[in-house]
Amino acid sequence: MTKDGFVTFETTTDLKDAQHVTVWANDAPGGSWLRVPMSRDGDRWRATIGPLDPWFYYYQWIVDGVSVKDTSNPAKVTSEPNWSTFLIPGERSRLLSDVPAGRGGKIESLTYPSTVANQDRTALVWTPPGYDAGRAEPYPVLYLQHGSGQSYTDWVEMGRAKQILDHEFLDGKLVPMVVVMGNGNVPDFGKELLDNIVPAARARYNISSDPSRQALAGLSMGGVQTLGVLKAYPGRFAYMAAFSAWFGSGDGVDAEAINKGTRMLRLYVGDQTDFVQPFFMASLPTLDGLGIHYEFDGVTPGPHGWDVWQKNLIDLAPRLFRR
Length: 323
Known about the structure:
alpha/beta; 7-stranded mixed β-sheet
């Protein structure tokens, strides 16, 4: 990686017998994925891409049509093991970079019994710098959900949630809160959330049970799940947000209860390269027809991917628990 943003990718010699290798990365405009052919150089393959703007990037090799991990890159993506990641530093990517050692919050694992999945499951929990388990006033809490094909690790490993929350806290933009990232891969998310994830989080952390101090947000599948909770349990979470999701049918929806119990419903979606956008846009007339109050400030440039969802979290987190 050069200081002017050019990145050279190089395979190991394990791929010396390959016939065709490309690097597939989110390096196109807006974070779209682009496949760039690599050239053979002795017993390795190489490609130089750039200049890339400062940001967080992820990539994999496509070797004779098969996805392959760059084994020389130690970065780990648990739910998508063929991906590797890297960060190009700069002001644009500051919120995605690590804060100085010892100044950020903590990420801990929370194991809880799931009566929906009939097994023990795990959540990751971010606590803010200076978190006080004995504080008289419980902390507000954000339950932050992943998408389909992902799991509880993705907001940390791909979404850079820790870095975003650390920076915004240190910048004075964040109300001190606890963020719980649970496993949403269940057939009944509302039951899993309310009967399993929430009680386990409350048992271990000093967090509020007051709906006005609770938030729920998610991306894609997690956004659909969030809106499902909004419809089924209006008022349980005063702050709600969905990234690249859609509202669906308005049948049986109690709009009055939603408006009464929700202080903020904020919606996000990517541009025309986000395949969810047509479903999202079709939801807005449904919300309008029901008279449900919501916020939507326009599309976030980028596809159905982490570039969009990182920006959505950056925008959302400072808005929580301020009304």
